[in-house]
Write a structure and sequence with these properties.
Layout: H1 13-22, H2 44-101, H3 105-173
Helix pairs in contact: 2-3
């Protein structure tokens, strides 16, 4: 079996194939197999600009995310203040209802029923607020985790592409692609 190696620097795929076939020693139909190997050249300035652009966009998204997190925390703080005020109001109401209890037996039963409803609602509000806060925190963690994973994967992919390009340049510069007989 005889091997023959030809090469071209043609960028267009069809013209590259025509150029390679025209450089073969025999007509194309006389070969049992023809293997084409292509390598790419990268415009590192463009890749660097693109990477910088992606990095800036990611930084902006992180800044936006931090701003949103601060808004959520601020809203939770505001809700906490509202809940404190609501609890204080409920407790004040409870104290007033206890004073009214002394006036009559009928008012005692009515007051007890109202206090129980207030406590139930208060517990439901506290529980709902805590659950909402927990869900918000989980969403923030999930978003931050996904952003970090995507950033790492992008870096890994770019590193792999750069190393492949360096390997092909090394092979080409050191003449490791030769015809063997």
């Amino acid at each position: 079996m005889r091997q023959e190696i030809v090469q071209t620097k043609e960028g267009d795929t069809e013209r590259a194939a025509e150029s390679l076939c025209s450089k073969l020693k025999k007509p194309l139909s006389s070969y049992s197999i023809v293997i084409f190997f292509a390598s790419s050249r990268y415009d590192f300035k463009m890749l660097s600009d693109s990477t910088a652009s992606l990095s800036n966009a990611l930084n902006q998204k992180m800044t936006d995310l931090q701003s949103r997190i601060k808004d959520v925390v601020s809203e939770n703080d505001a809700n906490g203040g509202f809940m404190d005020a609501l609890q204080k109001t409920a407790m004040d109401s409870n104290e007033k209802l206890v004073k009214i209890n002394a006036d009559s037996e009928r008012n005692v039963n009515f007051t007890e029923m109202m206090v129980k409803r207030i406590e139930d609602n208060q517990n439901k509000i506290i529980k709902a607020t805590k659950e909402s806060e927990k869900q918000n925190i989980e969403q923030v963690r999930d978003i931050a985790s996904k952003a970090a994973v995507n950033s790492i994967q992008l870096g890994d992919q770019l590193s792999f592409i750069f190393e492949l390009d360096a390997l092909f340049d090394y092979i080409e510069k050191n003449g490791m692609l030769r015809a063997s007989e």
